[in-house]
Design brief:
- The protein has about 290 residues and is α/β, with parallel strands linked by helices.
- The protein folds into 2 domains: about 160 residues, 3-Layer(aba) Sandwich (Rossmann fold); about 45 residues, no CATH class.
- It has 9 helices and 10 strands.
- The strands form 3 sheets. Strands 5-4-3-6-7-10 form a 6-stranded mixed β-sheet, sandwiched between helices. A two-stranded antiparallel ribbon has the order 1-2. It has a two-stranded antiparallel ribbon with strand order 8-9.
- Strand 8 and strand 9 form a beta hairpin.
- The chain is elongated and about 90 Å long.
- The two termini are about 30 Å apart.
- About 5% of the residues have low confidence.
Length: about 290
Amino acid sequence: MGGELFPDRLAKRLGALSIVSRSGRLGHHKGTHRSRKTGSSLDFSDFREYHPGDDLRHIDWNVYARTDKPFIKQFLDEQEMRIHVLLDSTKSMGVDGKWDYARQLAIALGHIALKSGDTVSFSTWSDEQDYFYRRKGSMHRASLTKFVTSIDSPGSTDNFTDRALRHIPKAVTVLFIITDGLEETAKWEHFFRRLPGICGDIRILTIHSQPEEAPTYEGDVRLIDSESGAGVEVTMTRRAVQDYLATKVTHEAQLTALAGKFGIHLVRAEVADGVMETMTKKIRHAGWLR
């Protein structure tokens, strides 16, 4: 990709979007999201009877005058969310524009969360090192962009599902996983079984490129596995392409079904759509943003 990975014009187009959480797990610090608890925001929630030890300043004296009983005003508690973005860095993510697109999605999600006053963390890895970022507050949007942009190519030769769990921090409200989902379904099932114990609101963005959707190879070609480096000689006939597409559709259907089985939400994201189309339409339509 030429030029800046996530220019200001993209950041501005995110507008007033915010992340919607279905999880009851929130952080301990003040933020902009209403929790199920009551607290000290300015938004009224309900009344309850006064009990010895309650703060007298919260008694509603107008209600007391009408009922001759003291009632306490309760207010909605506003707390931060803890948003984590986990990026698949296996080498298959480095073809057909998937890596740039995936990093753009990670930055966009991080910008939205930081702007809402949430704590944002991001992780991925290569064979040589681990990458981890954590900040809170809109003033850190530029540093998040710089951090993610600096990881210029995917460099992991391990299976994503084998290493992913150790890169997810504790007490996450919403977990976003960005991956092309190409590993065998048995590995995904093993990974999915353990995720609900880590986070109650898990969302997966599966990345797809046009060459994967509609291969244009013809004749005798040598295909190289982007992760293992192994090659195979193939004659690309119409039947071979049809068999490949059928296998791909079956794999994606199995992955979607597995995610649903474990209460994990999945959205299909296509490089050709671009990051803003994906964020403002697909992801918003899925109810992940508002």
